[in-house]
Amino acid sequence: MYMMFFGSSVLILMGMAIAWSILPFKGGRWLIMANVLLLFAWFAVAVIAGLSIGWEFIRQIFGMLMPMVVSPFLLLAILRKRKLWNRLVKRYAVFVAWFAVFMIAFQIPAFPDGWTYFECFGLPILIFSLLYVWDRRLGGRFRMRWIVSCSVLLIVGFIFGSLVWNATAMQADGHEASMDWGGGKMTRGRQSVDVTTLTGPDAAAVTKRYHFTAAKKKMEVPDGTKKELWLFNGKLTGPAIRVTQGDVVEVTLSNKNIADGVTIHWHGYDVPIAEDGVPDISQKAVAVGESYTYRFKADTAGTFWYHSHNQSSEQVGHGLFGSLVVEPKTLVKEELEIVGFVAPKYIDASGALLSSNGEVPKKIKPGTNVRIRLGNAHNKPQKLMLNGAVFQVAAIDGNLIHKPTDLKNTYLQIPAGGRMDITFTMPNHAVRLFDANDENGGWVFQSTATTTKASTEIPDEVFKPEEYGEQQASQLDLSAGFDREFEMVFDSKLAFFDGMVHHLWTINGELYPNTPMLMVSEGDLVKTTFINRSYSHHPMHLHGHKMLVLTRNGVETTGSPWWTDTLNVKPGETYEVAFKADNPGIWMDHCHNLDHATNGMMMHLQYDNVYTPFSGHTHE
């Protein structure tokens, strides 16, 4: 609905701009009536959108532009019998209508500042005044080409200036990020802690050791073409890390020839901050010829993954990622287990499934319990189907679902960076798992008893984690309320970036590195509200913590406690989540569409007594 409002607004206001452009030169009541109808159409779209998704999502667009686009009609009604003013208003309307199109497409942020208010309200008044002075001084000797040329030049100038202005907001020498204390108190007098001292266990405690070398390798990808990939140990996906709950894991990373340097981030695993693998926060990127050692205790069972966190959009896209599976100490039942990823866009844009633990079995004995651990290494949420068997979602982001129920004719939408464990009992016919973008691909499991054709049907029903499973008490006590509450509003703006025009993605109207710093104290119970006013999905990933989803679009969750580390927020959606500040550090909180993170959608969660000795800004 938000996308409908946004797109319709652009089209309707553009229609008004075209009509007003014709009106001063040809006249005619039908052109005024066309503008009136377009205006009422915009009002109607706004009302429908407001009632459907809430005024919160449209007020910054509708509220800022409504006075602007209505003003020509009011002025015409008031001054219709005065020829000079009537002519003046029509010319003013040309500018206002095109300027409204420009503002909705390029400028209006989630949190308008003083300059934006001047653009929307002050600038039209200034233009009207200048037109009056011009008209009086030149004795009304306007010509069509002057008006058209000046209007076009003015709007083009504003567009170009905005693209340049927005681009400067991403410069590292911009204003320092503001500190948002979420309504809580500023803690003073506590001893400062260096992130490099918040490390994992000593080497003597290690029970599982791995050595990874990051290097370039040319190889065939799923679509049959050969590409230069960047891989850990020459494998796609990287070496599978499989340990048992309680193991102490050590991974030594060496960089053979990745020019910009590499790191390893343990996505979804709450390691100490010094082991988190974020350059310029917890470490320096590992340069060519250098190495770095990570250690952490695998105290949480589940499905996780690892990937480079330096220039992530490029490095993950080229293959620097792999699986991390922590098995529980006691297995509940015997299962045939398969671990896989949806491929990143550079490797295979059609959503090919990559096996992370060897060959995928083509035949399975009927009655076999099967668990598929699925991760999404793509930048966008992926639509996956399991056809041919009743299945359950056993875990989300490594967190078990309490009493999962059977699903059939339902597709899964896995966020970028997210994981889901699905389980089923192999039937006496074919079962197929595939991505909606790769209908001819995926994995087909045939019964050992008979061979049948696997279904390629795409269900209409989507899996709803907010109402799946059975309710139980969560690990968070929310009865006393929250110590801090934050609001994160997602929006976008156009700008020059890397020599081209790109969409830059904002949080609370700011681009990284100027996004607000969320400040907490150890032990705080924190609530965060996500509001997506943009037209794209934003899978928000908080490092070092797990988030408990409280509400989706204002409705409380009713299923099993939904714990996640990567929450996909669709356009027009709101979520409320909660977490305990129990892992001191300076943690990234960013969109895991890594292109969005690269283009500004990053911020940090900082414990008030923790600092980093590293300089510069986090690379995405």
Describe this structure in words.
This protein is α+β, with helices and mostly antiparallel strands and 620 residues long. It folds into four domains: 1-107; 179-191 and 473-611, Cupredoxins -  blue copper proteins (Immunoglobulin-like, Sandwich), CATH 2.60.40; 206-331, Immunoglobulin-like; 333-463, Immunoglobulin-like. The protein has eight helices and 35 strands. Strands 23, 24, 26, 28, 29, 30 and 32 form a seven-stranded mixed β-sheet that branches. It has a six-stranded mixed β-sheet with strand order 1-25-34-33-27-31. The longest helix is centred in the first third of the chain and has 25 residues, at 2-26. The protein starts with a helix and ends in a 9-residue tail after the last strand. The model has no long low-confidence stretch (mean pLDDT 88).
Write the layout of secondary structure elements.
Elements: H1 2-26, H2 29-53, H3 59-79, H4 83-107, H5 114-137, H6 144-168, E1 179-180, E2 193-194, E3 208-220, E4 226-232, E5 238-244, E6 248-255, E7 265-267, E8 291-297, E9 302-307, H7 312-317, E10 321-327, E11 336-342, E12 353-355, E13 363-364, E14 369-376, E15 382-387, E16 391-396, E17 399-400, E18 410-414, E19 419-425, E20 431-435, E21 443-447, E22 461-462, E23 484-497, E24 500-507, E25 517-520, E26 525-532, E27 538-542, E28 547-552, E29 555-556, E30 563-564, E31 566-569, E32 574-580, E33 586-591, H8 594-598, E34 602-607, E35 610-611
Parallel strand pairs: 1-25, 2-35, 3-6, 5-10, 11-14, 13-21, 18-22, 23-26, 25-34
Antiparallel strand pairs: 3-4, 6-8, 7-9, 9-10, 11-12, 14-19, 15-18, 15-20, 16-17, 16-19, 20-21, 23-24, 26-32, 27-31, 27-33, 28-29, 28-30, 28-32, 33-34
